[in-house]
Amino acid sequence: MALSKIDTEIEQIDQEKYLRQATSYYQPLEKPLKYGPEVNSLSDLVAALHREFESNYVNIEMVNHLMLSYKSNPREWRKYAKFDRYTYTRNLVDAGNGKFNLLILCWGEGHGSSVHDHADSHCFMKMLKGDLREKRYEYPNRSARDNGRSHHPDGEIDSRELVEIGETPIAVNDVAYINDNLGLHRVENPSHSDTSVSLHLYCPPFDTCSVFQDNLKKTTAKVTFWSKYGVRTKQNEQ
């Protein structure tokens, strides 16, 4: 096949559709690629991510490599780390030209998220400071074909409450990955004396997600930003 034809086909790929389809089969890396590019700073990471997302065919494995390769440096991310006394915060670092969102989340002592999904997007979560604990749950009423597990003869999850399937500690410079085919999750800072900071990449970006209660009641939650580019957002700009 001629290279020009290959280039044309890549240009015709719908990036958002491709990324969402990729959640059905992508398996995360455990360590950086041997021959992948180096990432020596947060600005290197942002620039490399923009290059990856220039093409409609995004190499998710390379995105994973970039997140693994960056090593936390508080001097670089401190200006984005905005805390709230009562809840964890979501602070936008880079909007990715509408193709991805890079955020820093700040977790006060004992702060945690609700159980939520990721709107059929990829979620990479890297620890920058402290520790977090991820609890993962089966996604209610998704077929075994979607999540690789079944508790019902017809392939449907038959449960009237959330089913926990794992708990994982996340330490500094570790990267966790989840998408809706792998389940739901809840993230919390287990410490009652230390804060935590994490770096999250979502692709494609999303404005709403689903939040779940123990009895499987599902509600739609709007995704907001506590700050953007290091500046506190106004209520109507979140």
A few lines on this structure:
With 238 residues, the chain is an alpha+beta fold. Helix content is 20%, strand content 28%. The chain has helices at 3-12, 15-22, 42-52, 60-69, 74-77, 144-147, and strands at 89-94, 101-107, 115-116, 122-129, 132-137, 164-170, 175-178, 184-188, 196-203, 208-212, 218-222, 227-228, 231-232.
Describe this structure in words.
It comes from Drosophila melanogaster (Fruit fly). Fe cation binds at residues 116, 118, 185. Keywords: Dioxygenase, Iron, Metal-binding, Oxidoreductase, Thioether bond. GO terms for molecular function: cysteine dioxygenase activity; iron ion binding. The protein is of the alpha+beta class and 238 residues long. The chain has a single domain, classed as Jelly Rolls (Sandwich), CATH 2.60.120. Helix content is 20%, strand content 28%. The chain contains six helices and 13 strands. It has helices at 3-12, 15-22, 42-52, 60-69, 74-77, 144-147; strands at residues 89-94, 101-107, 115-116, 122-129, 132-137, 164-170, 175-178, 184-188, 196-203, 208-212, 218-222, 227-228, 231-232. The strands form three sheets. A seven-stranded mixed sheet has the order 7-4-9-2-1-12-13. Strand 12 (227-228) and strand 13 (231-232) form a beta hairpin. Helix 3 packs antiparallel against helix 4. The longest helix is centred in the first third of the chain and has 11 residues, at 42-52. It is globular, with a radius of gyration of 18 Å. The model is unreliable at 1-8 and 147-157 (pLDDT under 50).
